[in-house]
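ARCHIVE RECORD
Type: protein–small molecule complex
Small molecule: adenosine-5'-diphosphate
Source of inputs: curated submission
Record status: active
Notes field left blank by submitter.
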Amino acid sequence: MSGLIDDIFAGLEDDDAREREFVQTFAALLPDTELYLLKADGAGLSPAAGADDLEDRFTRADIQAVKETAGPVFFTDCQGRAMVGLAVEELKAVLLAWPPMDDCQSCRALTATMMPNCTAHVLLLMEQKMVRTENEQLQREIKVLNYQHHELIEHNHRQYLLIKEKDRNYARNLESEIAARTEDLERANEELREASRLKSEFLANMSHELRTPMNAIIGFSDLLMDTELNAEQMEYVNTVKQSGDGLLGLINDILDFAKIEAGKLDIVSEPFSLSEIVKNVAAMFMKPANDKKIKLNCLIDERLPATFLGDGNRLKQILINLVGNAMKFTSRGGVSMTVEKVKGQDDWAMLRFMVVDTGIGIPLEQQNAIFEKFTQADGTITRRFGGTGLGLAITCQLVSLMGGRVYLSSVAGQGSTFCFTIKLRLPSAADKTMEAGQQSAATAEDQPLSLRVLLVEDNLVNQRLATIMLQKAGCEVVTAGDGRLALEQLKKGRFDLILMDMQMPNMDGLEATARIRAIESSAEERHDYAGLGGRPVKIVGLSAHARQEDADRARAAGMDDFLTKPIVRSKLLAVLAEAADK
Ligand code: ADP
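STRUCTURE (tokenized, with ligand):
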């Protein structure tokens, strides 16, 4: 049978797999079936039947019905046999005949019952086969997909491991790079710290070295001015003194600048008289203003409290800087300085200071730059007016340490206004009592003080200068060149005050002070020292170093007070007055 079916289908131009399968399945179910294939042109393809034979068996209407129906068509042929017909595509028809049956009745019954079942069965089988094939195909595809999926997972995992490894390497590299860089930075930092320390040390030493001769220049000029001098001599000494003061100002600026760089500029908080400071600054510049024939005015709001708590010396330094600049750059008109309160409460006040001049002014494009260190509005001005370009940088720093800001408004050729604010505390009742005490000590300035002073100083010039200053104040002075010699002097007699230089050969001031304090507290040792006993002797340190840390070290060693060189007469007198009071 299958050979026959192959023959039939081989005769078709387009082999139709589905129809062939249907026919094959059908034929397999009904082995004795006769097959006829009718082509569109009406030619029969069954080798077993010719066209004539077909026409005998099937009516045209049956054939037409098969052609036009999608799916099997059941009918009875001319001879009363059960038939099933199936259209093969649009053009062809396969006609299947049931084996001849004589009994037409049973044939019809068969047609009516079995044939549809059989066909349905065939279709089901076909469907099953198709589904199975599709299923197999799907299984294959699933297998492929599974494989691909697995591959993908494997690939991803490999990638993940690779990335993880890379990450680990990267992190390891990064860590070691960071560690190396941190080490480099720490080394660089250390080097910088060391360089900065060396620089500070150098500046401190330089300032010490410079201050020592300055001490003599300024001190002796002062003493000289107190002697009988003719006008010409007085003018010379005055010039020496002024140059000395100027040089000292410069040294102080450089030292302040070094402190700013090292972040070591400290602001103290002690009672001071605002009007005294402002008037003092005005008085300092009165003579230069008269010489230049320009006006110098100062105006303080009278409602302001007399005393504030803060760093009066630093405030004075700011004002000297600004008024000094205003004077320097003004040749006609004048300079004015005003102070007023901007805001405040019971325990603090924000003050505004204004220094206005009618000088050369500052071009707009230079107004920011001049606040930078070593910067001047015009490089050529240096030669005309002098200066280091440090003043405003220091001023700004000081003002900001005092909780304020500096403002500038200036028009080239017309003048400048420098304005700054600072926040100051107001003294409490307790502070005022303390201050009154200090003032009473200060009023004793000009009375002769018959104190016995031990002056411990290795530099002979400074020794001589301090001796004269002390003698002029009425003191009896005994000198010693170093700490050891001072201790020897203390074996011989009592002193009201010891003025102790810090830096000396053999035994420096700190060691000597510590030694004296140790002797004072040991009853046994005190025996050998006639000068020590009863109350601890007042010791005041002297140093050309003007750093806070030097004052701190002095106090830590047991000194009661600390004076910086060059010795300022008023400060020395205040120290003496206090010693006399004891
Ligand atoms: P110095 O005065 O030592 O040069 P400063 O920092 O005090 O340094 O000032 C920097 C520059 O700012 C001055 O050189 C000057 O060019 C300019 N300047 C400051 N104050 C005035 C002023 N009142 N009038 C004009 N120019 C000023």
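CURATOR ANNOTATION: The longest strand covers residues 334-344.
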